[in-house]
Design goal:
alpha/beta, Rossmann fold, 7-stranded parallel β-sheet, binds nicotinamide-adenine-dinucleotide
């Protein structure tokens, strides 16, 4: 119950899903938590439940991130843990999603049937610039902007733990999600580079690469769900706590010899090392 006693943690995108679960476990483990989210109502709700603080900035807005972390520095004079968790899924209407799911199922059926493949997703060939840029802005720019500002606080104190949210989509790829996969792979590469750079300052940087977890982000997955379950040896989606415990471990002193790693609770989807 006291693995994070006395630590100050900021979790981005913690008004929902994985960030919310991480925030709850952090608070239970004794951390004082700053809840960040774009959605002020969601951030207020979670902060109230964990007796935490609220900072509503957009992680993809460099100036807003700078102001947010300046406020942390001024108010608390320290930051022990940063979790770069804020993220978005590709935005589809219900109709678009149903159409894409049907296409994907048909495509996979044709591929596995061994005959001629005539159904294609064609996501990359039709992806608009703004969709590509938005995905990279929230995930990759956001992780960079927040890490840069956090290091300004952690560096002089020569201590800190940063946990970045990757995905098995960044490890194994995922059909029809090129921007999301690129962003998540980028986050994992970024984590390794920064881990090496700041190891001498006593700061650890690691990533988590979750498999499919039941959260509001994955709730709209319908017809494609059986396909995803078939690819998961444990044959189910994970729970937010499966990721929250990984974050507690990586943020705590129990992981004091762990840096530059990707920890992947994924039900066996991808096996490594
Ligand atoms: N759920 C999964 O299966 C899964 C798997 C692998 C990785 N992830 C990653 O985990 C993270 C959390 O996902 P989730 O499933 O909890 O999603 P979610 O949609 O439940 O929560 C994401 C939160 O981030 C916030 N947010 C979005 N853009 C933001 C921005 N620009 N600035 C600040 N906050 C912002 C949202 O308001 C929301 O509260 C994401 O990075 C996601 O890509 C999720």
């Amino acid at each position: 119950m006291d693995r994070l006693q006395g630590k100050l943690a900021l979790v981005t995108g913690s008004g929902s899903g994985l960030g919310e679960a991480i925030t709850r476990r952090f608070a239970e483990e004794g951390a004082e938590v700053v809840v960040n989210d774009l959605d002020p109502g969601a951030a207020e709700r979670v902060a109230k439940e964990v007796d935490g603080h609220v900072l509503t900035f957009d992680v993809s807005d460099s100036a807003a991130v700078r102001r947010g972390f300046a406020e942390v520095a001024e108010r608390f004079g320290r930051l022990d843990i940063l979790v770069n968790n804020a993220g978005i899924a590709p935005r589809y209407s219900d109709e678009e999603r149903a159409e894409r799911d049907a296409l994907l199922l048909q495509h996979v059926t044709e591929l596995q049937g061994g005959g001629e493949v005539t159904t294609f997703l064609d996501t990359t060939v039709s992806l608009p610039d703004e969709d590509w840029r938005e995905m990279l802005a929230v995930h990759l720019d956001g992780t960079f902007f927040c890490t840069r500002e956090a290091l300004k606080i952690m560096g002089p104190r020569r201590s800190g733990a940063i946990v970045n949210m990757g995905s098995i989509m960044g490890t194994s790829g995922g059909s029809g999600a090129p921007a999301y996969c690129a962003a998540k792979a980028g986050i994992m590469g970024f984590s390794r580079a920064v881990a090496l750079e700041v190891v001498g300052r006593g700061i650890r940087v690691n990533a988590i690469a979750p498999g499919f977890i039941d959260t509001p982000m994955t709730a709209p997955i319908g017809a494609a769900r059986p396909l995803l379950l078939a690819q998961t040896p444990m044959a189910r989606f994970g729970e937010p706590d499966d990721i929250a415990w990984a974050a507690v471990y990586l943020a705590s002193d129990e992981a004091k010899f762990v840096t530059g790693q990707v920890l992947s609770p994924n039900g066996g989807w991808h096996m490594s090392q």
